[in-house]
Amino acid sequence: MRSFRKLTFATLVAVFVLIFVGGFVRSSGSGMGCPDWPKCFGQYIPPTSVSQLPVNYKEIYSAHRDKKNRRFAKILTALGMKETADQILTNPQTLHEGDFNPTKTRIEYINRLVGVMVGFLIVGVFVLSLRLRRTHRRFAIIAGALVLITIFQAWLGSIVVSTNLTPWTITIHMFLALLMVAFLVYLVYDSSETRVIYSSLGFWWLIASMGVLLVQVLLGTQVREAIDVVAQSFPREGWIANLGIPFIIHRSFSWIVLLLHVGLILKLRKTEGLKSFSRALILLILGTILTGMGMGYFGVPPLLQPVHLLLASVTFGVQFTLLLRLSRKDRLEATTI
Question: Where are the domains of the chain?
């Protein structure tokens, strides 16, 4: 059990690292640093110079993505999403192939290496969970679900690349990462001996706080999509001024996120065993807001965006841990508040 808990916690940390690296890939514009998947320019070790590529490499990888997109479009059509499928097939940007950039290729390749490491760790968690299946069957079930999500994430990652970073695929990719965080947090928590507290008022306040945070993350993806559009016409320092409504809504909604979390902390501040959670949450929320302000005032620096995303993801992880500590009435060991 102790080994299982340590490996699961290490995997959780690795997922957070992957979220940070993935955010940096997006903010640095390196998402298409490798135009194919799982290899990079058809190689397991990426090229370092354009001289290592065929003269017509753009046509080669554009045609390769077109074949994959057509297969993906058939799946979408079968699911009743014909309009979305048609948009992917008719959007000229989907098959646009940029010039080879060795720096962006290295950044995307590092992202893939971290992803592979996370995959192996999750498989390791599943293998260890099988050893505990007689006494903790739910561990194996959740770890097995994690393996399936990881496989789907890998496939979706290939679709993100083949469709040239279609925004809605990236959004799904992000929310699946948060689902992985929730599963791993549950495994870490449930494999430890933690005293459980129940507070009906605090519980529902926490549910509301988690809800607005997820809405804020969704709004943030809309802002990122808007940045992708304005980046084609304006230099980085002019992005914020031309984002329009999506940025204004995202910025204003941060006040709701802050106020709800302040209220949550006030509800739980006197609850024994939850003071550290209260401090962590307020620091994470303030850090998320400050990095968001930094992006707004300083022209969206490439490093601030992944930090902003990481802080929001860790906040969700802390919230989910707190939810587990507040919602397990069957394991109540403290006085009901």
Answer: 1-193, 194-337
